[in-house]
Amino acid sequence: MKSLPLALIVAGCLGSTPAFALNILLGNDDGYEHANIRALYQALKAQGHTVKIAAPFTDQSARGGAFFFGRAVEVGQDSDPAFPDSYYLTTTEQGVCASAECNGKNVDMRISGTPVMAILMGLKKVMPHPDLVIIGPNPGNNLGAINSASGTFNAASVALLNGVPSLAVSTDLKENNPHQVARLVGQIVHSLDSHRQADGALLPKGVGLNINFPPLAAIKGARLTRIGSYVPLEATYADDIGKLFPAAAGKPGITFQYTPAATAAQQDDEAVWLGQGFVTISPFDATVPAPEVSTALKPLLALPFHP
Predict the structure, then answer these.
(1) Could you tell me if 272 and 236 lie in one domain?
(2) DSSP sequence for 91-129
(3) Most-buried pick from 61, 78, 155, 175 (CB within 10 A)?
(4) pLDDT tens figures, 190-200
């Protein structure tokens, strides 16, 4: 894959075509009030774009492509006057109450909609036919095989399936400068706008970008990468998850563990280059193409699929 200076990727050329105002829909999997999405909203508005938010009500990290179908939802609007174009989605869940006030009773609980649900609502109700969808910036990198569980990545994929160019943007988990991240994402948007495709589109048809930032203070440049399969951490079950989650010490659950080093075949994967301090930019489409295996699967065609 090709290594490029960060300035060329995110800032574009000074002599490029002037950018135009875009209609941009923002989403995330961390909730509509998260500092990252609010900082990006402000940065893109300052660039002159029309920006709206369609996000979950609360943190919905690692919900992947989940959605509740056939269930009534409610669309809410941010009460903060600084974000008049920010909307969130909730629905209800039936369950048995465990609190002292209603112990044992069947109740309807108001819960957040998922990232995919929020962006589907946004594309129909908040901003139909946007020029661009940006999901994030997510605190915590979404890389390789873990993208299948990422609400950030899957919401961007849904936008792409709906024909809208999309960016899934993630940062280092400890990054605490949302306005600096927003500035860099704004430069990426400016570059895409200034260097459009021959048909005027921001990205080639059917292509989205999975963008991951290392710690901002240590950025060495940018790299065009592939998503690949390598991840430095993988999800696992443990009888005691207290090592990473002290509040749940002594209790079983899902946690994370380190993986072996990347193999020779994984050296162009985004996680490898991110670990070396590069901003990784990985094109993706909204489907998951499989390798060519038709010969190996031909015996299935001989099965007697007749009643």
Answers:
(1) no
(2) EEEEEE--STTTTT-EEEEEEEPPHHHHHHHIIIII-SS
(3) 155
(4) 999 999 999 99
CATH number assigned to the domain comprising residue 157: 3.40.1210.10
Contact predicate 234/243, CB 8 Å = no
Residues 54-74 have pLDDT tens digits of 999 999 999 999 999 999 999
Sign of CA dihedral 148, 150, 153, 156: positive
Same domain, 204 and 257: no
Average pLDDT of the segment spanning 265-269: 95
Q: Using an 8 Å Cβ cutoff, are 160 and 202 in contact?
A: no
> Do 246 and 130 belong to one domain?
no
Residue 4's pLDDT band (boundaries 50, 70, 90)?
low
Cα torsion through 47, 182, 177, 243, rounded to 10 = 160
Task: Count how many domains the chain has.
Answer: 2
CA dist 125 and 27 (Å) reads 14
Q: How far apart are CA 119 and CA 94, in angstroms?
A: 24
- Length of the chain, please? 307
> Residues 92, 57: contact at Cβ < 8 Å?
no
- 258 with 118, same domain? no
In eight-state DSSP terms, residue 300 is: G
Find the mean pLDDT for residues 205-220.
Answer: 95
Is 179 found in the same domain as 129? Answer: yes
Residue 254 tokens, joined? 């899902």
